[in-house]
Design goal:
Blueprint: H1 5-17, H2 23-32, E1 47-48, H3 51-71, H4 81-90, E2 99-108, E3 111-120, H5 129-136, H6 144-151, H7 159-162, H8 167-174, H9 176-192, E4 197-198
């Protein structure tokens, strides 16, 4: 079976820019998981086969565009291509092996029929951003700013914030890349991607 266009794009960006020790082992790991076939969500954005990979590309493209818009041709003096690729492409590693397909009864005009749907089956409940950081650091070393950006990329949607933590505000004040990644994630989710289940 031929690789999807999104997978090819992901691998090209990944291998062109992410060069630090352990990068090839991390890519091998992704190839052994469902990263390239998993949805980005169960029923919201990119709730379709391959959605996670496409969402990661969308976030990377939004992140790169925003940094270039603010810093112009000198953007690499602020954030390297490697850092932007790591944050954009790997921010949702927490969703690897996270969804399963199950069947449920749905009432249609012709009566009840079984339809597939994505269901969350969390095997390692470590949180969202923090789990992505944990997985990445099993293979590559992240800079403090990369780790903070990935860890807090959900912004105000993060369960820790909803639970009353003020750490997000402190992190955003210290690490501007976090704000760029959070906004890129929102733009990709709400401007670039379709809503609703596609199975």
């Amino acid at each position: 079976m031929a690789e999807s266009s999104a997978k090819q794009q992901f691998i090209k960006i990944y291998t062109d820019f992410i060069k630090r020790d352990g990068a090839s082992a991390l890519l091998d790991y992704l190839n052994r998981t469902d990263f390239f076939t998993a949805p980005a969500s169960a029923r919201f954005h990119m709730a379709e086969v391959g959605g996670l990979c496409q969402h990661s590309l969308n976030v990377y493209n939004r992140l790169l565009a925003a940094v270039k818009a603010d810093f112009g041709d000198d953007y690499q003096k602020v954030y390297s291509d490697e850092t932007l690729a790591i944050c954009g492409l790997l921010h949702d590693l927490c969703k690897v092996n996270y969804y399963v397909v199950e069947m449920r009864n749905v009432k249609e005009e012709s009566g009840w029929v079984k339809r597939p749907f994505f269901k969350v089956e969390e095997k390692f409940p470590y949180g969202h951003g923090e789990k992505s950081v944990f997985i990445a650091t099993q293979y590559i070393k992240l800079t403090p700013e990369e780790a903070m950006a990935i860890n807090w990329h959900m912004g105000g949607f993060d369960d820790r914030v909803r639970g009353g933590s003020y750490s997000l505000s402190e992190a955003m004040g210290k690490y501007k890349l976090l704000l760029y990644l959070h906004v890129a994630d929102l733009q990709a989710t709400y401007l670039d991607e379709d809503r609703g289940l596609k199975l």
